[in-house]
Structures are given as structure tokens and as C-alpha cells.
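Researcher: We're teaching a course module on how sequence relates to structure. For the next exercise, students receive a sequence and then see the predicted structure as C-alpha cells, so they can try to spot secondary structure elements on their own. Here is the exercise chain.
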Amino acid sequence: MKRLTINIPDDRDKLYQVIKYTAGEIQVRLTEEGISACTGKDTYVIQANPIPDIIELAQLKNALDGMYNFYHTTLELMYLPYARADRRFVSGDSFGLHVFASLINSLGFDSVYTFDVHSRISQVLIPNLVNLDPIHHYDQLGPIIDVLGRDNLCLIAPDKGAQSRYDLGYFNLPVFVANKLRDSRTGALSGFGISDDIKEYKRALIVDDICDGGGTFIGLAELIHGINPGMELSLYVSHGIFSKGFVELDKQFVNTFVSDFSFKHPDFDSWSKL
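Model: And here is the predicted structure for the students to work with:
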């Protein structure tokens, strides 16, 4: 089968245009290059990173579907939006993941792919969702562990969610599970905990799916350095939003790794050059 791959936003103004009307509506129109790219293709994949405008996504799919009767259609959202909003946290909340899943389901893709989804509920709400994890699919973690070296290295899951998400025992290294306290209404962190046995190791790699502002990892690192001041800490996340940059993270971590499928914050390139 011959496949067309089209990316939001990189192929905007190349393979398709977004026409904006004065009242605020948009229309998607394939360019001549985009129409030509469809010719002879059996399947197409729409890739989106960061979070796409849902109307742009829907209209792009509609424009493609208007060209041919494609055999298979795929959406790749390597960072699945709203997966952190997987319930109503307090009375009066919306159920963000359910709303987003309903919209995605309505578009009628044959397959939806994501990478290291935050909540397994996503796979219930989007029945054709395929979740790729960093251990068994793309093996993002193996090469990092090889670079760090196994001597006196342990792995850390920062909470029970990360523990259930990853089979860290796969790497045959000591594994620690930390815990944290968070206010369900405000999201504020109020404390961390980890076994004192962490002092027996010289180096550790913390593994998780998302680093937003970094507060979880900074707070946990401060706790660990209080127990083991000389420990060299590294951090791996599948999606590095890094909304507060790297200054505070760099005070605690000798290395910060992100996957090849990381969410791209608009300022990421400028931060990474600091």
C-alpha cells in the first residue's frame, strides 16, 4: 500500500491551506501539491504535534476524504491531549478526556496512535487507540540506560501511577517508587517520600511520562539529595512540556532526556539553546 503522510502544522501552506473568514470560521483546502500527493495513495496518516486545532483537524480529514475512498486512515497524536483530565476532580468539573475522546471518535479514523498515554482510561474512551510505550515499542529508555551505564544505577518511578505505567523491572536494575501528596482542587504538591535505601546508590534515573513545570521532579530531587547529597540524578520523560524552562531542573539533574515524540512547547527550541 502507498501512504500519504500529512503533518499539522508543518504541512500547513504546503499540502493544505487554512482559509480564515472574517466571522471567525475556517476552511481547509488542499493545495495543488496536496492534491498531487493524494494521487495513487491507498492510505493516509495525519500527524499532529503539538495539540492541533480540532476544527482544523476535522476539516483536513474531510478534505482528504473528499478526494478518494482511502483504504485506511490513521491519526497520530503522540501526545494525547486531555489525558490528564481523566475524571471530574471536584464537583462542577468537566470530564475533559471524555469530551476530547468523543470529538476524536466522531471523526472516524480507522486507527489512532499515541505514545505513552497518561491515563489508560483513554483506551476505553477511544476504542481504536493504540498506545506505544517507551519500553516495549520504541525502546527509548534502553539506549539512555546504556549511555548512563548500569554501575550503581537505580531507576525511580515518581509515584504509583508511573509504577503501574512502566515495567521498570524489564531492565534488571533496582527500582524505587516514590510518593507525592497533591491537592485535587489546586494541583499543588505538598510533600514527597522515598525509601532511605536510596542512599546506597550513586546514580538514579527518574522515569515518567510528562514534565510540565517540573515541580514534581524538582521536589523529589530535593528530597533525594537530602538523603543522598552526592547522588547524580537524571530525568527521562516521554513528553517534555517544560513550561517553566530548564533553569531549576538543571540545578537538580545532570541529564534531562525526552523522547523522540515529545510534546513541543512553542518556546522549546529557544530554551534548549540556553
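Model: If you want an answer key for the exercise: The longest strand covers residues 203-211. The mean pLDDT is 91.
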